Protein backbone atom coordinates (compact mmCIF):
# COMPACT_ATOMS: atom_id res chain seq x y z
CA UNK A 1 0.00 0.00 0.00
CA UNK A 2 1.49 3.32 -1.00
CA UNK A 3 1.93 6.25 1.33
CA UNK A 4 -0.15 9.41 1.06
CA UNK A 5 -3.56 7.84 1.57
CA UNK A 6 -5.60 10.95 2.29
CA UNK A 7 -8.89 11.17 0.46
CA UNK A 8 -9.01 7.48 -0.46
CA UNK A 9 -12.51 6.05 -0.36
CA UNK A 10 -12.79 2.93 1.81
CA UNK A 11 -12.16 0.11 1.45
CA UNK A 12 -8.65 0.99 0.28
CA UNK A 13 -6.67 -1.86 1.84
CA UNK A 14 -6.63 -5.60 1.28
CA UNK A 15 -4.59 -8.66 2.21
CA UNK A 16 -2.71 -8.20 -1.06
CA UNK A 17 -2.03 -4.53 -0.33
CA UNK A 18 -2.25 -4.12 3.45
CA UNK A 19 -2.49 -0.86 5.31
CA UNK A 20 0.81 -0.43 7.14
CA UNK A 21 0.33 1.26 10.50
CA UNK A 22 3.16 2.22 12.82
CA UNK A 23 2.50 3.33 16.40
CA UNK A 24 5.13 5.66 17.84
CA UNK A 25 6.34 4.60 21.29
CA UNK A 26 8.27 6.64 23.85
CA UNK A 27 8.93 6.81 27.58
CA UNK A 28 5.87 8.19 29.33
CA UNK A 29 3.37 7.07 26.69
CA UNK A 30 -0.15 6.53 28.07
CA UNK A 31 -1.00 2.83 28.07
CA UNK A 32 -4.55 3.19 26.78
CA UNK A 33 -3.46 5.55 24.02
CA UNK A 34 -1.41 2.89 22.26
CA UNK A 35 -3.13 -0.28 23.47
CA UNK A 36 -6.42 0.72 21.84
CA UNK A 37 -4.95 0.90 18.31
CA UNK A 38 -2.90 -2.25 18.92
CA UNK A 39 -6.05 -4.16 19.90
CA UNK A 40 -8.45 -2.70 17.35
CA UNK A 41 -6.14 -2.69 14.35
CA UNK A 42 -4.61 -6.03 15.27
CA UNK A 43 -8.05 -7.62 15.46
CA UNK A 44 -9.16 -5.97 12.23
CA UNK A 45 -6.08 -7.32 10.51
CA UNK A 46 -6.86 -10.82 11.75
CA UNK A 47 -10.51 -10.63 10.72
CA UNK A 48 -9.63 -9.42 7.21
CA UNK A 49 -6.87 -11.91 6.52
CA UNK A 50 -4.11 -9.37 6.90
CA UNK A 51 -5.54 -6.21 5.33
CA UNK A 52 -3.87 -4.14 8.05
CA UNK A 53 -0.43 -4.69 9.58
CA UNK A 54 0.42 -2.90 12.81
CA UNK A 55 3.81 -2.47 14.46
CA UNK A 56 5.23 -0.59 17.43
CA UNK A 57 8.17 1.66 16.58
CA UNK A 58 10.40 3.76 18.78
CA UNK A 59 10.72 7.52 18.62
CA UNK A 60 14.41 7.10 19.42
CA UNK A 61 16.59 4.04 19.73
CA UNK A 62 14.95 0.61 19.88
CA UNK A 63 14.64 -0.84 23.36
CA UNK A 64 12.34 -0.96 26.35
CA UNK A 65 9.81 1.84 26.81
CA UNK A 66 8.36 2.63 30.24
CA UNK A 67 4.76 3.78 30.02
CA UNK A 68 2.82 6.21 32.23
CA UNK A 69 1.80 3.60 34.80
CA UNK A 70 4.99 1.59 34.76
CA UNK A 71 4.25 -0.92 32.03
CA UNK A 72 7.45 -1.90 30.23
CA UNK A 73 7.15 -2.57 26.51
CA UNK A 74 9.90 -3.88 24.28
CA UNK A 75 10.05 -1.90 21.04
CA UNK A 76 12.55 -3.58 18.71
CA UNK A 77 12.19 -1.30 15.68
CA UNK A 78 12.83 2.41 15.11
CA UNK A 79 10.30 4.53 13.27
CA UNK A 80 10.73 4.07 9.52
CA UNK A 81 8.76 6.78 7.70
CA UNK A 82 9.09 5.08 4.33
CA UNK A 83 7.59 1.84 5.66
CA UNK A 84 4.31 3.27 6.97
CA UNK A 85 1.06 4.40 5.39
CA UNK A 86 -0.26 5.60 8.75
CA UNK A 87 1.69 6.87 11.75
CA UNK A 88 -0.21 6.87 15.05
CA UNK A 89 1.18 9.22 17.69
CA UNK A 90 -0.23 8.51 21.18
CA UNK A 91 -0.02 10.94 24.07
CA UNK A 92 1.09 10.81 27.67
CA UNK A 93 2.79 12.88 30.35
CA UNK A 94 1.40 16.21 29.20
CA UNK A 95 0.91 17.62 32.70
CA UNK A 96 4.55 17.01 33.63
CA UNK A 97 6.71 19.23 31.46
CA UNK A 98 9.94 17.97 33.04
CA UNK A 99 9.16 14.26 33.02
CA UNK A 100 8.92 11.63 30.32
CA UNK A 101 6.18 12.01 27.75
CA UNK A 102 5.16 14.14 24.81
CA UNK A 103 7.13 17.23 25.91
CA UNK A 104 10.36 15.38 25.22
CA UNK A 105 9.08 14.63 21.73
CA UNK A 106 8.06 18.23 21.11
CA UNK A 107 11.57 19.32 22.13
CA UNK A 108 13.19 16.90 19.64
CA UNK A 109 13.66 19.07 16.56
CA UNK A 110 15.01 16.19 14.51
CA UNK A 111 11.91 14.12 15.19
CA UNK A 112 9.63 17.06 14.41
CA UNK A 113 11.35 17.63 11.07
CA UNK A 114 10.90 13.96 10.20
CA UNK A 115 7.24 14.16 11.14
CA UNK A 116 6.72 17.23 8.99
CA UNK A 117 8.42 15.55 6.02
CA UNK A 118 6.72 12.16 6.34
CA UNK A 119 4.18 11.11 3.71
CA UNK A 120 2.43 8.77 6.14
CA UNK A 121 -1.02 9.83 7.31
CA UNK A 122 -0.48 11.41 10.76
CA UNK A 123 -2.93 10.29 13.45
CA UNK A 124 -2.79 11.96 16.86
CA UNK A 125 -4.46 10.35 19.86
CA UNK A 126 -5.05 12.41 23.00
CA UNK A 127 -2.04 14.69 23.60
CA UNK A 128 -0.22 12.98 20.75
CA UNK A 129 -1.97 15.67 18.72
CA UNK A 130 0.30 18.18 20.45
CA UNK A 131 3.33 16.44 18.95
CA UNK A 132 1.78 16.84 15.51
CA UNK A 133 1.10 20.46 16.39
CA UNK A 134 4.73 21.03 17.33
CA UNK A 135 5.69 19.66 13.92
CA UNK A 136 3.43 22.25 12.29
CA UNK A 137 0.91 19.70 11.06
CA UNK A 138 -2.19 21.14 12.79
CA UNK A 139 -1.71 24.84 12.09
CA UNK A 140 -4.79 26.16 10.32
CA UNK A 141 -6.28 22.66 10.37
CA UNK A 142 -9.31 21.11 12.04
CA UNK A 143 -8.11 19.01 14.97
CA UNK A 144 -8.80 17.89 18.51
CA UNK A 145 -6.96 16.58 21.55
CA UNK A 146 -7.48 15.87 25.25
CA UNK A 147 -9.70 18.52 26.85
CA UNK A 148 -6.81 19.63 29.06
CA UNK A 149 -4.71 20.56 26.03
CA UNK A 150 -7.32 22.08 23.72
CA UNK A 151 -6.44 25.65 24.68
CA UNK A 152 -2.79 24.98 23.86
CA UNK A 153 -3.74 23.37 20.56
CA UNK A 154 -5.81 26.42 19.63
CA UNK A 155 -3.01 28.78 20.71
CA UNK A 156 -0.69 26.95 18.31
CA UNK A 157 -2.99 27.68 15.39
CA UNK A 158 -5.34 24.71 15.09
CA UNK A 159 -9.08 25.05 14.55
CA UNK A 160 -10.17 23.01 17.54
CA UNK A 161 -13.25 20.85 16.99
CA UNK A 162 -15.13 19.42 19.97
CA UNK A 163 -15.55 15.93 18.55
CA UNK A 164 -14.39 12.47 19.52
CA UNK A 165 -12.59 12.04 16.18
CA UNK A 166 -11.66 14.72 13.67
CA UNK A 167 -10.84 13.59 10.14
CA UNK A 168 -9.43 16.52 8.18
CA UNK A 169 -8.47 14.43 5.16
CA UNK A 170 -4.74 13.98 5.46
CA UNK A 171 -4.78 14.55 9.23
CA UNK A 172 -6.72 12.60 11.85
CA UNK A 173 -6.85 13.47 15.54
CA UNK A 174 -8.75 12.11 18.52
CA UNK A 175 -9.78 13.32 21.94
CA UNK A 176 -8.49 12.15 25.28
CA UNK A 177 -7.22 8.68 26.19
CA UNK A 178 -10.14 6.32 25.46
CA UNK A 179 -10.85 8.11 22.16
CA UNK A 180 -8.10 5.90 20.76
CA UNK A 181 -10.79 3.23 20.43
CA UNK A 182 -12.93 5.46 18.20
CA UNK A 183 -9.93 6.72 16.23
CA UNK A 184 -8.81 3.16 15.52
CA UNK A 185 -12.28 1.95 14.56
CA UNK A 186 -12.60 4.95 12.26
CA UNK A 187 -9.32 3.99 10.58
CA UNK A 188 -10.74 0.51 10.03
CA UNK A 189 -13.90 1.94 8.51
CA UNK A 190 -12.07 4.46 6.36
CA UNK A 191 -9.56 2.03 4.89
CA UNK A 192 -11.11 -1.42 5.25
CA UNK A 193 -14.78 -0.51 4.98
CA UNK A 194 -17.83 -0.27 7.22
CA UNK A 195 -18.39 -4.03 7.30
CA UNK A 196 -14.87 -4.64 8.66
CA UNK A 197 -15.38 -1.94 11.30
CA UNK A 198 -18.74 -3.36 12.36
CA UNK A 199 -17.35 -6.88 12.58
CA UNK A 200 -14.45 -5.61 14.69
CA UNK A 201 -16.89 -3.88 17.04
CA UNK A 202 -18.90 -7.09 17.44
CA UNK A 203 -15.85 -9.15 18.40
CA UNK A 204 -14.62 -6.43 20.77
CA UNK A 205 -18.14 -6.06 22.22
CA UNK A 206 -17.61 -2.31 22.06
CA UNK A 207 -19.94 0.29 20.56
CA UNK A 208 -18.40 3.49 19.34
CA UNK A 209 -19.52 6.75 20.90
CA UNK A 210 -19.20 10.40 20.06
CA UNK A 211 -18.91 12.07 16.69
CA UNK A 212 -16.54 11.52 13.79
CA UNK A 213 -16.22 15.03 12.38
CA UNK A 214 -15.19 15.04 8.72
CA UNK A 215 -14.00 17.94 6.62
Commentary on this structure:
The protein is an alpha/beta fold. 32% of the residues lie in helices and 20% in strands. The chain has seven helices and eleven strands. Strands 2-1-5-6-10-9-11 form a seven-stranded mixed sheet, with helices on both faces. It has a two-stranded antiparallel sheet with strand order 3-4. Strands 7-8 form a two-stranded parallel ribbon. Helix 1 (31-47) crosses helix 7 and helix 6 (179-192) packs antiparallel against helix 7 (194-204). The longest helix has 17 residues, at 31-47. The chain is globular, with a radius of gyration of 16 Å. Residues 1-10 have low confidence and may be disordered. Residues 20-189 form the DJ-1/PfpI domain. It comes from Amycolatopsis roodepoortensis. Pfam families: DJ-1_PfpI.
Which sheet architecture does the biggest sheet show? 7 strands, mixed
Order of helices and strands: EHEEEEHHEHEHEEEHHE
What is the CA-atom radius of gyration, in angstroms?
Answer: 16 Å
Give start-end ranges of low-pLDDT stretches.
Answer: 1-10
Give the number of helices. 7
Helix content class:
25-40%
Strand order within the widest sheet?
A: 2-1-5-6-10-9-11
| Strand segment tally | 11
What best-fitting shape do the alpha-carbon axes yield?
globular
Distance between the termini: 24 Å
Share of β-strand residues: 15-25%
Helix/strand structural class: alpha/beta
**What's the mean pLDDT score?**
93
Amino acid sequence: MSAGLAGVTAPAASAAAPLRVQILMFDGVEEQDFVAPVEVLGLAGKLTGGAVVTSLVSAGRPGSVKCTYGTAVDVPRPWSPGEADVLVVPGGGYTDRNGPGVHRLTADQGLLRRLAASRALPVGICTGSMVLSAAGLTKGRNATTHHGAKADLAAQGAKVIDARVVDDGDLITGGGITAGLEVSLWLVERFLGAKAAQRTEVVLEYERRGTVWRA
